[in-house]
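YM 10:42: Inner nuclear membrane protein Man1 (Trinotate prediction) sequence, as discussed on the call
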Amino acid sequence: TFIKEKYLSIDKVLELVNERLCNYKKGIVDTPYIPVVHIRDLLFLPSERKRKEKLWNEVQKFVSKNESRVRTEVQRISGQDFQVWKWIGIPLEPNLSLSSPGDQISSTASIYDSLTSFLKIYIGECSSSVFNEMVGNLIKEIKQLNLIIIQQDSFPNKFVVYLKMRSKEDAIQVFNHFNKSNKFGLPLKVKFMAEYFYNQRCK
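YM 10:58: structure's back
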């Protein structure tokens, strides 16, 4: 629905703005802010932008008026003035995932303390009916592993499933079992989410 897509887009905006500040602090980028139009272009393909104009206007209005951790500024970039968004709250840990195929997480992994019980699972591009079948198979197999799902939410148009697991340990088992696998004929990619981002998306 429009409302679900709106809040999914807002969630992505917050991730991008927060991630920009984190990357700035790490010395990866030169500025802590990101042009608003750049975020729009990251969210929507060129072929979608005209059709998504109403959605984008709603997202932009919400972030500018209702998100106290994001400040709107005007910055000169390459000789032109751009409206930018800058994260001014406490930097939040971006989504975490391991980088190499076959990587497994254990309690001794260096990132263990940063992990959470919240997961975002990307399913390869497919039709809504195939997506729903994939989600059903995924949930069934997770339960067969005796892992407990506290909450789930899925978005066929974005090929994404959000899961709140009983514990960090259950989430790690899901990651180890499914990340970068083709268990159901399509590639799966699992990421850990900060609790804040999960709650913003699934509240």
